[in-house]
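Our working data are protein records whose layout never changes between entries. An example says more than a description, so a record of this kind follows.
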Amino acid sequence: MEDYEVRDTMGRQQFPKIELSFEIEIKTKKFFSQFENRQRVNTSCTLVVYARNVGRVYAQYVNSFIQLPFPILHSLTLEQIKHKNEETIIKDGMEYYEYHEDNTVRDVIDTEYSLNRSINKYGPSRYDPILPGLSHAWKIIISDNFDKVNLETLKIKWTVFADNALPVQGMVMAKDIKIVDHRKS
């Protein structure tokens, strides 16, 4: 083997390798509306992003930047974005919102109970390492009318940073994302 081949092979075992995959979950919840005095049905759609460590070492720090096209975002999210005056990204003539996700968790350290509800109190955030062969999932609420949007040209783009590894970029067509419909179960 050449020197650069040996260094490349050795480097593969020093850094984690994170790959992203996507699913869209559709769920329906039934609830009784006291205001309307009747049963209501609420459908929700969620983009589930799986960060899988396909490398040979654990990933301590994982940060991803996921760019979603506006047509598939939840309308409340759009209002919140405009309210916060956050910037959007325009690429290839399409407007995107960039989500930042990481592998931090916060533990529940106490629960306060009141008459109507309970309130969890959380400790400081900490990184939850992703071991080789395992995944970490993030959920992003999308439009419950995404199936009425023309998905043919919509792309979801991302960049993932893990420890000291080089950033990994990717893209998936929205029409190619697997849809898991829990309404049929």
